[in-house]
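Course assignment 3, question 2. Fill in each field.
Student: A.L.
Task: Predict the tertiary structure for the chain below.
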Amino acid sequence: MLLFVTLAAYGWMGFLFFTTGGFTRAWWATLPLVLGLALGYVWHRDHFRLASLALISGMMLANGYQVWYHGFQMAPYLFTLVVTLAGLLFHPSGIFATAAASAGLVIAIGAMEHGGHHSPAQVASPTIVILLAAIASWLSTRSLHIALHWAWNSQAQASQKMELARDRQAELQRTLKALNEASYRTGA
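Answer field:
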C-alpha cells in the first residue's frame, strides 16, 4: 500500500513538474493530497472513518487549489472523483455532504477568483456535474450498502439462533443425564 501511495504521489508530482515547467505554485496542491494520503494510511486500522475523512479532505483541498490555480476549464470536474470515492467510503449522507462541500468550494472559488468574472455557466456546469456524480455514486453504492446490511443482520440472527440451539442442547443433555440417573436408581 505504501508503495502504491508513493508511486501515486511521484506520478502526480512528475505530472505537475512537466506540465507547469518546474517548481511552481501548482506544487502546493500536492501538500494536502500527500498529507491526506499519509494520515489516511496511518489511521486506516484504528480509525477508519477518520482516515477516510482525511483522505477525502486532502483530495478536496488539492482539487480546490487546482481550480484556483488552473481556472475553470477542466479542474472543477476532478471533484467528481472525490465524490465517487466518498461514495465507497462513507454512508450515503457522507456522499451528499462531500458533494455539497465540493460544489460549495467550486462556487466560492468562482465568486472570488478574478473578482467573480466567471459566467454563471462556467460555475454552474461543474456544480451540476458534481451533484449528478453524487446521485450516480449514491445509486451505485446503495445496493452495496443494502447487501452489507442484510449480511450483517443475517449473521446476527444466525448467531442468536446458534446460541439458542446451544442452550437447548445443554438443557437436553441435563435432562438426559437426569433420566439416566433416574433409570440407574430404579434399575439398581
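Instructor remarks: The CA atoms of residues 32 and 58 lie 5 Å apart. The helical segments are 2-20, 30-43, 48-70, 79-89, 92-112, 120-187.
Grade: pending
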